[in-house]
Amino acid sequence: MLIKIAKPSDLHESDVTPESIYLSRRRFMGGMVGLGAGLALSGNVNANEDYSDVPEGNAPTWLKEKISETEWRAITPSDPEKDTLTPFDDASGYNNFFEFGSDKRDPARHAGSLQTEPWSVVVDGEVNNGGRFALEDFAKPSQFEERIYRLRCVEAWSMVIPWLGIPLADIIKRADPTSKAKYVRFETLVDPEQMRGQRSSFSIIDWPYVEGLRLDEAMHPLTILAMGMYGRELPNQNGAPLRLVVPWKYGFKSIKSIVRISLVEEQPLNSWQQIAANEYGFYANVNPEVDHPRWSQATERRLPNSLFRTNTIDTLMFNGYANEVADMYAGLDLRTNY
Ligand code: MTE
Description:
17% helix, alpha+beta, 10 helices, Sulfite Oxidase, Chain A, domain 2, globular, 338 residues, single chain, binds ligand MTE, eight-stranded mixed beta sheet
């Protein structure tokens, strides 16, 4: 069991947060707020998960304020040997963001050209309450939460990242879906002037990058829209200003720099499925028992690693979140629905 879902009344910050982290967190948090009503997640955390040396970003004032009010709600990975936080430099220096190139270092090199302020998000489709929202208005009604999650890429590398964001369920509830809404479809910005990968004639992606979730997956309390990580706003290469985080699915589901969220009746065709449907499916649940056609998914390379320290660990079913999510897939053949 890797995540304990506790009643808010069961959980105190002192139970889940070693002093070193608590103190470093106070660097950016004006004041801790108590746990509100609703779901609280807790788990063990390691004393070395202090990221007080991460450089301050350049967030707009409203985002700094939201971050300063963050609730400490979830610390999920719990293996004290393996689940230490990935250093910020690795999490922000080794990325997949094809809008800026296909090399792992391209996003950090080139995503600075992306203008993330102002930013707006369209919520549309099968909703009663849609519209175009300035990111600030979109985020403001929700409480920011910190979630430390594993991120397992389909390419068999992984990291552990402390995200800051809001439950996607908040946004969906506010949009008031109609009875026809069965899936959620997400789109990334298309702007070849700012995104050099979209100008490349070698690109295999038919822009925009698209992802999708079933409505129950989107409403799951582990599913968040992140606007920050490591106590600051998202670096552009990690999907600023708004990205999806679905920790039990392969990383390609975590779509970056979102501009549209649509509630739809039909299962969306996600970008990687469109490119190679025999290799990448709609579900993309982390599953060590179902290999990629070209490599095993039984193990993963936990970053940072090197030639001398391969840091290979076993991959866990649903990336270690089986207790929380397996019920959603009861009766579904996970081999054919990869
Ligand atoms: N979102 C967009 N728009 N474009 C992308 O190329 N890559 C995906 C996902 N989201 C991608 C994206 C893949 S394959 C992974 S593994 C994760 O982002 C990587 O997130 P990270 O760079 O923050 O580790």
